[in-house]
Design goal:
With 238 residues, the chain is α+β, with helices and mostly antiparallel strands. Helices cover 17% and strands 45% of the residues. Strands 1, 3, 4, 5, 6, 7, 8, 9, 10, 12, 13 and 14 form a 12-stranded mixed β-sheet that branches. Strands 2-11 form a two-stranded antiparallel ribbon. The longest helix is centred in the N-terminal third of the chain and has 19 residues, at 2-20. The two termini are 38 Å apart.
């Protein structure tokens, strides 16, 4: 009887440990661009509203961490989005319906690829509810920093998608009352507006391609989040 009581106590302890969860940290660099200025005055923003801003590219490079119990250090994932309306309208806050293509780092194992896809869908939220295709591609990030501040990021996902940025300067003020009109499309720990010297998508799955340059349409920065895993299966390490 005593052995049965001890065994039952051990089982309850294991279940209790599982139910408390296992928080896993993940962090890295982030870049995005869309076909609307994010750093702009109301004159330009109102002129673009509901006409553009319906296309976006989002890229994450994981510098450290795990997702779904799988280590994904050094890997990248990119989401390309085509929405039905301007994304991130600050007046309505509505998230338009959208289709997305996710580009997963070709260096990822199948388990890592699945983790990266799930991570991107988690970070992209409703914008990545309808992923029409997942593609493996070589993903490369070149990040330039000075005194701990981001200067520029160049991100390429093969020949399918890419973003290249530069810092804003005094010549980028057109109205004189510019501000950061839109927020980044995902959770960040630090983000600053930048000029997209290149914002491109050359894939075949969204019925549209684009290659833009010179718009004040980018954000560069960093992200850090955590995921709490609660089931014993989810906590298994790969």
């Amino acid at each position: 009887m005593r052995r049965m009581f001890i065994l039952a106590s051990l089982c309850l302890s294991v279940l209790a440990m599982a139910s408390t969860g296992n928080a896993q940290q993940i962090s890295g660099d982030y870049v995005e661009s869309r076909n609307a200025d994010v750093y702009t005055g109301y004159c330009v923003a109102n002129a673009e509203m509901n006409l553009v801003g319906d296309q976006a590219v989002m890229g994450w490079r994981i510098n450290n961490g795990s997702w779904n119990g799988v280590k994904v250090d050094g890997l990248g994932v990119v989401a390309v989005i085509k929405a039905d309306a301007t994304i991130g309208d600050p007046y309505t806050g509505n998230i338009p319906a959208a289709k997305a293509v996710v580009l997963v780092d070709e260096k990822a194992t199948p388990a890592q690829g699945a983790a990266l896809l799930n991570f991107a869908k988690n970070m992209g939220g409703q914008l990545l509810n309808d992923v029409v295709r997942v593609v493996a591609a070589p993903i490369d990030f070149e990040v330039s920093q000075e005194n701990g501040h981001y200067n520029k990021i160049k991100m390429t996902a093969g020949t399918i998608a890419g973003i290249e940025t530069r810092m804003l300067n005094s010549k980028d003020h057109l109205c004189g009352n510019e501000e950061t009109f839109y927020k980044p499309l995902t959770q960040t720990t630090h983000a600053m507006a930048a000029v997209a010297m290149l914002d491109m998508y050359e894939g075949k799955d969204l019925n549209v391609t684009w290659k833009l340059s010179g718009k004040r349409s980018a954000f560069i920065g960093s992200f850090a989040t955590e995921q709490t895993l609660t089931s014993p299966q989810a906590m298994a390490h790969h």
